[in-house]
From TrEMBL:
InterPro entries: Ald_DH/histidinol_DH, Ald_DH_C, Ald_DH_CS_CYS, Ald_DH_CS_GLU, Ald_DH_N, Aldehyde_DH_dom. SUPFAM superfamilies: ALDH-like (SSF53720). It holds the Pfam family Aldedh. Keywords: Oxidoreductase. Its EC number is 1.2.1.39. It comes from the Bacteria. Residues 26-493 form the Aldehyde dehydrogenase domain. It comes from Acetobacter senegalensis. The keyword Oxidoreductase applies. The gene is feaB. PROSITE patterns: ALDEHYDE_DEHYDR_CYS, ALDEHYDE_DEHYDR_GLU. This is Phenylacetaldehyde dehydrogenase.
């Protein structure tokens, strides 16, 4: 075991009596309720944050609205905003180890993943989106209809920030997804009220204080911690929230869409997935096994784009199944702070119970399961990794988003049968095709019902590539060169001269 030594600054942050982050400073909540933060590796309480009241939410939105109306941020030149956001990325680089350790302590994931994907990813995405501040452009156009002689008009469009944005964040990548929800809004000139998951609030609070240090003006970036059903919903219902940028589960996303629909607030939804892989008989087995072991078990499968269903053409089924069984059998299970482990606790006791219940039902229905190593029994939220072979399609574990270290492997006669299975889902977030054939590599991605399709890879997520879901997996796209469009309104200006 090679346990990472926890930094004194991390211990100090855990011990701090956290408040809400409003108007560039820590504020006491108007209520006294607090939410406990647990270490998933032990089940011990490690910190707490306020459970924000309605009054707190109103205060945070008011602070954001005032900063927006004053023009203190949106009125800056785009390159001035870009410079502040680049400074924020540098501060994350400076404090990367603190952020990575906080992430592992509150979320459970491997410290290596926290370093690379959370602290490292946050820097990459911020540097990408900061550059978009200066690329927001409208168009100029001539009049397209007949005009009386002598009438002269010229028209152009501008992209203007939409207003105050609510960024609502889930628990699986708390720092990275906070960046995805908040930074494009800031780059576009919006002010923000962000809400982390009640389970993993710490790194977003840390990010907010870094934003102030980087030069984001007071009131532009506010954080309320609290329950989704109270603080989260109050935020979504608030008439001064012009746009909700949400990442989370499909049921909550649908509820938010209803509330936003009723008051015509803008909304983007990045929701759940049940992401398939199609493995063709001509695929490179070693590439399939290493790629899918990562895609299914990274972060204990708590990845929206994780591969959880694999359809394998018959000639390759036994080889791929044996390779994946060996891969999960070799994954060492332990606390995220132990760099020698590959499987770590899931985020909470409730989530552990939910995944265990899916596995139990599968067992009771007679499913054939290949298990990974035994889990430690020390009060930590560990779940044993599992491969479920040729499950009945009606098994809940085969159809619903488990969001855990569980993957189904199904033998299919040919690619068409695999494709039919893959598309037979209410989700449509991501998928992959594994083949050495040029024709399949080009044809199958166009026929898969998913927002992103990888070939000979899975979970390769890049800020330059738009990401989002079809069907129950969401509405709108994050990332890409047009990312800021979702945080702007297009204004048309027509001038007679
Ligand atoms: P969740 O929907 O339970 O919670 C997400 C956030 O919404 C939390 O901050 C929560 O407090 C808040 N919330 C809950 N109820 C609310 C309400 N009524 N009004 C406003 N806010 C509310 O999701 P989770 O369990 O934290 O995260 C896991 C889910 O997120 C999975 O379904 C996963 O697929 C999805 N996810 C999707 C993507 C993507 O890009 N598509 C990325 C990561 C996670």
């Amino acid at each position: 075991m090679t346990l990472t030594v926890i930094l004194p600054k991390v211990l100090a942050f855990l011990e701090k009596q956290h408040g809400l982050y409003i108007q560039g400073q820590w504020k006491e909540s108007s209520g006294s309720d607090r939410l406990t933060v647990f270490d998933p590796a032990t089940g011990a309480s490690i910190s707490s944050v306020p459970d924000a009241s309605l009054l707190d939410v109103n205060q945070a939105v008011q602070s954001a609205k005032q900063s927006f109306d004053s023009g203190i941020w949106r009125g800056l030149t785009p390159c001035a905003r870009e410079r502040v956001l680049l400074r924020l990325a540098d501060l994350i680089e400076r404090d990367a180890e603190i952020l990575a350790q906080l992430e592992t302590l509150e979320q459970g994931k491997s410290i290596t993943l926290s370093r690379i994907l959370e602290a490292g990813g946050a820097q990459n995405w911020i540097r990408y989106v900061a550059g978009l501040s200066t690329k927001l452009t409208g168009k100029s156009m001539d009049v397209s209809i007949p005009l009386p002689p002598g009438a002269r008009y010229t028209s152009f469009t501008r992209k203007e920030p939409v207003g105050v944005v609510a960024g609502i964040v889930p628990w699986n990548f708390p720092l990275l997804i906070s960046v995805w929800k908040i930074l494009p809004a800031l780059a576009a000139g919006c002010s923000v009220v962000a809400k982390p998951s009640e389970t993993t609030p710490l790194t977003l609070l840390y990010l907010a204080q870094l934003a102030t240090e980087a030069g984001v003006p007071d009131g532009v970036f506010n954080v309320v911690t609290g329950r989704g059903t109270s603080a989260g919903e109050a935020l979504v219902r608030h008439p001064d929230i012009a746009k909700v940028s949400f990442t989370g589960s499909t049921p909550v996303g649908k509820r938010i869409a209803e509330i936003c629909g009723a008051r015509l607030a803008r909304v983007s939804l990045e929701l759940g997935g049940k992401n398939p892989a199609l493995v063709l008989a001509d695929a490179d087995v070693d590439q399939v096994v290493s790629g899918l072991a990562l895609a299914g078990f990274l972060n204990q499968g708590q990845v929206c784009a994780a591969c959880s269903r694999v359809y394998i053409e018959a000639p390759l089924f036994d080889k791929v199944a044996a390779g994946l069984a060996a891969a999960i059998g070799s994954m060492r299970i332990g606390p995220g702070l132990d760099e020698a482990t590959q499987i770590n606790p899931v985020v909470s006791a409730a989530h552990q119970a939910k995944i265990n219940a899916y596995q139990q039902t599968a067992l009771e229905k007679g499913a054939e399961i290949v298990w990974g190593q035994d889990v430690p029994e020390n009060g930590g939220y560990y779940v044993r990794p599992a491969l479920v072979l040729n499950p009945n399609d009606s098994l809940p574990l085969a159809r619903e988003e488990v969001f855990g270290p569980v993957m189904t492997l199904t033998r299919v006669r040919n690619a068409e049968e695999g494709l039919a299975h893959a598309n037979d889902s209410r989700f449509g977030l991501a998928a992959s095709v594994w083949t050495t054939g040029l024709q399949s590599a080009i044809d199958l991605p166009t026929r898969l019902q998913a927002g992103t399709v990888w070939v000979n890879s899975h979970v390769m997520i890049d800020p330059n590539l738009p990401f989002g879901g079809l069907k129950d997996s969401g509405l709108g796209r994050d990332f890409g060169t047009d990312w800021l469009d979702a945080f702007t309104e297009t204004k048309s200006i027509c001038i007679r001269y």
